[in-house]
């Protein structure tokens, strides 16, 4: 890890895509933004609230993409909407389905950039892992996304769009007149795909507000977990402005090791991070913080590490999620052995903390945690590697 690893937020969010004709995409606008846009498009002030509610339901409850299908709106109003707005999702470039049922979507967003979205079905729930950035400015040494050079923030529309396109693929929009289906295919959302969500706070917040809204997709705040590498100044806002659950990529029990694994630690070290977590608004036993801990052979997986971790957690309602390292081509680490992982888990558990070992999912399609990287970046990298092998590399 180079000491110059970027740990600042210096990426842009491209403006919301303005499709041909300057139409505004409705997807990802907050209620206030959409109301203002409706008025600007000629909706009388007095009707704006009602129209907003109707359109919101069509888009986010029923999953409708065509204004013509919004049958409770007058025909000429539907035409006015079509004249000013679109309802657009990022484009699914490819879909892979793992032997274990995990689905990975490669999604293209404005500018031709790509992000990955992963759906993980389980017996009693289904989790959608969404991305907040193309790539990541942080360079955690065990993470494939962190090796991607290109970075840009996703817009709120591109974040909400990931949820909507997965619902499309799973055929999860309600059917009018059909009985309500109580079990949801996408019951949980984790912001654990590509990117550092707290470096794209406003867009992530606005997107999650849309996803949580009761008149639409209506996923409760406790069904959403945001994972951060430890952007300390933004941590409290996660509780106050989004209200979702928090996971922290902890991964080490000494600053020396964490500096290597999660370089943002050089900016906000373990003690500073733990102070922010102790102060997390609304922290309680029913809303514990998840400490993610990737198990790297010979790096952070000793019994001493486990005991130190227990000491560090004291006083924080927490659970520890142990993630067997997911290897990727060229990765500088190996996964800890099963015995090591279990011994580590036992120590944490004996100290009174839940310590589940995450089952790697979708490994055959490179969909597991930390393996996400856009296909174009992978292709670029491999052509570089080929050039290097042929002695053509310029460094
Ligand atoms: N940037 C955020 C969220 C995305 S990463 C963060 O770092 O928290 C989601 C989780 O996967 C993080 O805990 C991350 O540290 C972990 N991870 C990254 N690469 C991994 C790998 N190769 N194997 C296992 N977990 C990994
Ligand atoms: Fe970025 Fe998270 Fe990967 Fe670190 S682990 S490089 S913060 S995506």
Automatic annotation (TrEMBL):
A GO BP entry is: methylation
The residues listed in the UniProt record as binding [4Fe-4S] cluster, with positions renumbered to this chain, are 136, 140, 143
Q: How is the cofactor bound?
A: Binds 1 [4Fe-4S] cluster. The cluster is coordinated with 3 cysteines and an exchangeable S-adenosyl-L-methionine.
Q: What is its EC number?
A: 2.1.1.192
Q: What family does this chain come from, according to its entry?
A: Belongs to the radical SAM superfamily. RlmN family.
Task: Check the record and name the PANTHER family matching this protein.
Answer: 23S RRNA METHYLTRANSFERASE, RADICAL SAM CORE DOMAIN-CONTAINING PROTEIN
Q: Which NCBIfam families does the record cross-reference, listed alphabetically?
A: rRNA_mod_RlmN (TIGR00048)
Q: What is this protein called?
A: Dual-specificity RNA methyltransferase RlmN
Q: Quick one: which gene encodes this?
A: rlmN
